[in-house]
Amino acid sequence: MNCAVRISRRTAFAGALILCGFRPTSDALAQSEVNLVMHTETFRDAASGQWIRRFSGRAAPREAFIDPDTGAVVRPRDLFPNQNDPFAINDRLQLGEGGYALRTLDRARLGMAPGRDHQSWAMNMIPFGVLLDGSILDPSGPWYDGGPADPNNPFDRACTGWEYEVTHPVVSQLVGVPALIAGHVQPSGMFHYHGYPRLLIEALRSEALARGKSSGPLTVGYSADGFPVLDYRFAESPGGRLVFRFSGYVLRKGQRQVVEFTNPATVPLGNHDGLYVQDYVFDPRQKNQEIEAALAQSEAYFGLTRSALRDGRASYALLDQHNGGVLGDVEGYQGSVYGCVLTPDWPMVPRLFAFEPDETFKQVIPFEPTGFGSRILKVLGVSEGRRSLYDNCPADLRSIRQWHERPPY
Prior knowledge:
The chain has 409 residues and is of the alpha+beta class. It has one domain. It contains 8 helices and 24 strands. The protein has helices at 26-35, 169-174, 198-210, 284-298, 306-310, 359-362, 371-380, 387-391; strands spanning 4-6, 39-44, 51-56, 65-66, 73-74, 103-105, 112-114, 121-122, 129-131, 136-137, 183-185, 191-193, 219-223, 228-231, 233-235, 242-246, 249-251, 280-282, 300-301, 304-305, 314-318, 324-327, 337-342, 352-353. It has an 8-stranded mixed β-sheet, with no helix packed on it. A 3-stranded antiparallel β-sheet has the order 2-3-6. Strands 15-16-21 form a 3-stranded mixed β-sheet. Strand 11 (183-185) and strand 12 form a beta hairpin. It is globular.
């Protein structure tokens, strides 16, 4: 049964205008305008009465990061083009009018969250969201077609349902994703992240501390289906206990076999090793066991230490299948709201939508090769739109794309 729940009417938005997720004080505005490129605001749509979040600014990463591990300056524009990604970052792309015109229904503002029996939405090559520096979150990869990995198979021409995991070392090298920033550039020049944007998040954390925010979840962006995107660790209170949120996904065991939403006639050979998205499964019980084993063997798991857990200085919990959960003290919201979380463990960036993504995010890669969409696709170097994902599957395999018998979107 399709089930959604509302958290509380107390989740009213704290002010109609929010810049980059911060309350609009003069200090916050000055800090945001200096360090961030993306701007966001919410407004009540006159026709529908719904609260809408829209975005504007440059659809590109910031100029430079400081790697906290080495102190080195990392400039994304120096990393592209590279041998396997021959495209430069296009700084003229815009999130707002005159560009992608991105917006979404602010479901967090409405207190919405997926329930236990909620039916997820497949990504189907739709970007997951946008980060506070203007970069796009788009973890989707090319698809297995029965032969060697081919980066030029964005629409699953063989309808296998097996998607290459771009953060896997074999695939990241194939498509030119530097491990340092976990992202790369499309033919259009759009830089996007496939994995955990560590350098950006560390920069946002430092800026939050500079403006006096030392506790509560760190907002790093917003999802295409209307929720804040948060980092996986935060302090409950200034100087208080650290809270970690990890994913509930684990690698499947043994040799690959048919899994849900895949073609039984084209199962890739080999063991589940993380080369494909479908090598992973949501299994919180097994994940808890793996975390406890890591803490016992190496004393740590992605920043969580065994000693801190034992002494009560830290705690952890697992997220739902959408890599999300209900959290309090999220900037820009009152009460507890549902948020999507970026994690250092797979999937890093969520791979499912809890609700239908907004039409504007669907058009980042257009559905049909007509009108303006055809010009975008030409820039992307492909002649087909996302509709090909559906057209490439015969009727008896349409469930690979059309989850829960939904029409193409």
